[in-house]
Specification:
44% helix; P-loop_NTPase; Sulfotransferase_dom; Gal/GlcNAc/GalNAc_ST; Carbohydrate sulfotransferase 3
């Protein structure tokens, strides 16, 4: 891999003064290549971890729930809801850089590394978001529930070194899901390439989920996150979403994260969930268990009764996948889609998305 157009900032240099470059990075000179060979961390032994990044309603919750079925995975969903709470409710706490620090800690099983990641362990006993597919911190790996009505998680909170050890010894990989809306500037640039540079002992891959903005806004309207046409909120919401999405795509283009970055469409997940999951596992360097594939099939082909039960939960991973990505194409939504296309013209052009034709 080659990281190009990187700016040297205090944040990016914080933990790379003694960084050893892994063999996934392209060689620079013969002298540097020799040093890389001598100091290289064996890729077969290095921890392989995955950062899932995407706007809300792009399929990130489904993939997080999928990884939660895999006992190999130390999966943490949206931990930055907690840091967002710190920024809002603890004005005297210095949270500068705490988001990247917590993501680093999860990816490399190193919670003792920062004060912020140690602090996090005091906030994970209870669910921090309604969409949480699993709370890995309250499992028997970290909490003692033998002979007690209520699990004792005090050791986890008080001893971050214990958490580091359990994470490394019991989970082969780490997966963390982050939405840009929980970042200070709401941009991928708040995390990448820093998560790669600051975790030299971990093979970090970045999975970026994207969705046609017309489908994304259709989903948000259905769960009442925004108003439908002709309400002016639709245009402002579409403008904000697409401006943020375009910024992230432009940022990735500048970095050229060859081998470390993969973009996956929501439509790919909906149209062929099992094959897309295999592709994601392969990209991350993971092995997909048969039980995970079975879970995907069950979750994406529910019967009518199951589908009806799950429809009331906007975060449920259980949905009939076939045709789900194209529901926005209904002719009744033509005027709505015109508004979205006008506000999202630049990002749609970048993604190669075609405008809808006027209904007959």
């Amino acid at each position: 891999m080659r990281l190009e157009v990187l700016k040297t900032t205090p944040q990016s240099l914080r933990h790379i003064a003694t960084m050893e470059t892994t063999t996934t990075m392209a060689p620079f000179t013969k002298k540097e290549d020799k040093r890389v060979t001598e100091k290289n961390i064996d890729k077969q032994q290095a921890r392989r971890s995955l950062l899932i990044f995407g706007q809300d309603r792009t399929g990130t919750t489904f993939l997080s729930a999928m990884f939660a079925q895999d006992p190999q995975m130390f999966i943490v969903y949206e931990p930055l809801w907690i840091t967002k709470g710190w920024r809002s409710n603890e004005p005297n706490y210095n949270c500068s850089g705490c988001e990247i620090e917590i993501v680093n800690a999860i990816l490399s099983c190193n919670f003792s590394r920062y004060p912020s990641s140690t602090k996090l362990l005091w906030y994970v006993k209870t669910a921090w978001t309604g969409a949480l597919p699993v709370n890995i911190f309250t499992t028997n790996h970290f909490c003692n529930s033998s002979g007690q009505r209520k699990a004792d998680c005090s050791k986890m909170r008080e001893n971050p070194n214990f958490v580091d050890r359990v994470c490394k010894e019991n989970f082969k990989h780490s997966v963390v899901k982050v939405s840009p809306e929980r970042l200070p500037r709401e941009k991928l640039a708040d995390l990448v390439p820093q998560v790669i540079l600051e975790n030299p002992g971990t093979e970090v891959r970045v999975l970026h989920l994207v969705r046609d903005p017309r489908g994304n806004l259709n989903s948000r309207i259905n769960i009442k996150w925004t108003k439908d046409y002709p309400h002016p909120m639709l245009a402002s919401h579409a403008r904000r979403l697409c401006k943020a999405s375009l910024s992230d795509l432009d940022h990735v283009d500048k970095l050229k994260l060859t081998g470390r970055y993969k973009r996956v469409w929501y439509k790919q997940i909906a149209d062929d969930p099992v094959e897309t999951a295999r592709d994601i596992y392969n990209f991350a360097g993971f092995q997909i268990p048969p039980d995970v594939e079975k879970w995907i099939i069950r979750s994406t082909t529910p019967n009518k009764t199951q589908q009806k039960q799950e429809l009331n939960n906007p975060y449920s991973p259980v949905r009939r996948a076939k045709g789900n990505a194209d529901k926005w194409r209904n002719q009744a939504f033509f005027k709505r889609n015109q508004v979205i296309e006008r506000e999202c013209r630049l990002v749609m052009d970048k993604l190669g998305l075609k405008r809808v034709r006027k209904p007959d």
